[in-house]
Amino acid sequence: MFHLRLVPDNTKIPFMNGRIAGLVVSAVLSLASVFLFFYPGLNYGIDFRGGIVIEARTPQAADFASLRHTLTGLDMGQVALQEFGSPQDVLIRLERQPGDDAAQQVAADRVRNTLAEAVPGTQVRRVEAVGASVSGELFANGMLALGLAMLAMLIYIWFRFEWQFGFGAVVTLLLDITKIVGFYAITGLQFNLVAVAAILTIMGYSVNDKVVVYDRMRENLRIYKKMPLRELIDKSINETLNRTLGTSMSTLLSIIPLALFGGEALQDFGIVLIFGIFLATSSSIFIAAPILLFLGENRLRRGTPTDAPAGNSPATTP
Amino acid sequence: MLYFSRWKIYMILATCIAGFILMLPNFMGRDTLAALPSWYANTRVSLGLDLRGGSHLLLEVDMATVIRDRVEGLVDGARQQLRTANIGYTALNAGERAVTVQLRDPAQAAEAVKALRQLASPVGRTALGGGQPDLDVTADGDTVTVALSEVALRDRATQAIEQSIEIVRRRIDETGVNEPTIARQGDDRILVQLPGVEDPDRIKRLLGTTAKMTFRLVDVNADPNTGRAPPGSEILPSAEGDRYQSKYVIRKKVEVDGATLQNASAGTNPQTGEWVVNFEFNTAGANRFAEVTKQNVGRPFAIVLDNKVISAPVIREPITGGRGQISGNFTAAGANDLAVLLRAGALPAPLKVIEERTVGPDLGADSIRAGLTAVVVGFVLVCVYIIASYGLFGAFACFALLINIVLTLAALSLLHATLTLPGIAGILLTLGLAVDANILINERIREETKKGRGVFASMEAGFSRAYSTIVDSNLTTAIKMALLFIFGTGTIKGFAVTITFGILISMFTATVLVRLMMVTWLRRTRPATLPV
């Protein structure tokens, strides 16, 4: 009976040969991401920056030039128009209006009325107006959630594994997160509450992945008492490779429809998750494992080959 | 791990069937639901505003005004107390949260403190009595300060927000919105969710009006255009639509308070045909109104709403019936709205809309369609992949996935949880994450088989070895989602909810249920090798 295998069984890929390259490439990408975070910076959505988003459907294909002209004429700062879905669907974004929270409301109403006058029959399908105090709180809460998630993961892995594993996982996670932020900076996708959800999801997924590989390493550490750590890590990664790629594949397949049919908000979410799955899968192999190799040599392998009573054959647990 | 006792099998099957029954009302038509007992018909997921359409408004109570009103009240009180106690003063000033009095004679300081302390009323009182005075009265030389205490400020704020919520609820009920949600959020905010409201303009206008109505006399001796009002009077603008004057000089003294109104309704004046608001006082208000109108026949009497003069008709004869009419050149909608506001009562302080998120109903319907399409396509893709990879065992996993969705919906229905668009994304993602357990198990079984173990031994080892890994990976996701639930707001919480339920349920479906299927198959067919 034929079964689909993403990689053949019993691979013996020497992943640890690329340990330096993996770490260096990752560090460079993360540094670049940090740079991108400051310049040009993220495209913060209205959740975090305040402002107004209006989604409208015009009766015929929208005339963007004239719409832009009309809306810019309102003198409400920068107006961004974007087509999405069909040519009739227009997404209008306005930056936060000067004044207090209530000023956003006034501005949103003005745009609504202007649209109704300029293009009769326009249907306003969605309005979001967020003031500065609300967006400030949402941002603070979002960052708090990310920080606490990081801490929770550190504590969790620290309890479950030796400290080397915890350290490796958290450093990897940091490298992962910076790259996601970099991805947001490069693509210009809206950085908002949905983005925080995406980052948390990728963090969860990435930690899962590390836990599976680490679990196998720990198991193998008990079984193969004499095997050098480097060989053992390679072996563990190879053994779990089909699972790692299999789960990535199944998760990817469940997310692709989101990126395809998810609508304005979820499309971005889907795209970032797809990027995150690639990121998490590669970081398990090329970053989390090498860190463990550097930290664990002579530590995780305290019992040297000479005093291993387990004998030459791999011990098996019942 | 491979043995299932009979009652355990029944339990597992019963859970699946119960889940199926519980989620069914979500897919029934209105007529079918009406025929069912209400407890069953009501076990449904409630759709978030982003899916059913509606308006989400976050309102903020203007606490500064609340405090200022209280301080202004204190000034009046202090003036009266000092006069009664015969204490002379040179100045009486209202500060941000305190009133300061400059005494003419510093020797009277102690006396003044004593007199002003009588203004205090206890706050924070419990059933056991106690409570603290809401004012701190202190003297320093010839200056006496009456300050609102911290407790008093907090107490006042709580009172203001509770009162505001009550008024907001009454006003929204008047508009006939179905199933509104009105809840306090934080110290000074009110969350209002209005399902099905496409254009919240009218409601925003209703909520944005304080609707403090007073009946006061017009100071006919003063000219409003001089820009200066005599003491005891103030210049107020007229509301839009007043044809006669743009400004009035109005006496500060409130003759009749709008709080004594009992009822109000919109109607038309049979003579002129224009829209008016008819109102009715309660007994106290009616008596007061009769008295005032009796004493002031022939003088204009202003109806003031939120410091704007709606109209100032001349009293032709005493009105003793406790009924009256406001005509202010209203439109039908304007008259109706004013009637609603008067019936519901005045807000203790102005409300500001600080966040609005409105979704039209057809965008909501589009989102549901898009979400369903994504879930169906995602399910098919994952199933095709998993069956291609693991054959029969993959098919078992797919069936378990289906049950997972059913049970997740059942759990959400039982708890009346809200399903949002991000929530649908959560269900989708759960599909991918839940089969991870099956991939782990199947890979492990395959490995054990390769090591030359027997059919049963491989299965046993596969399940028991993979289990701790499965628990680990699901727990980490659950922790993340708990954080998202706590710190996230609005629709994004829905993502945390569905994914947490989906993952917890997958611990049952992807392991217990799949194991039961595999074991049953094993016992029935007794294969020589496993199809992995």
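qc> The two ends of chain B are 19 Å apart (CA to CA).
qc> done
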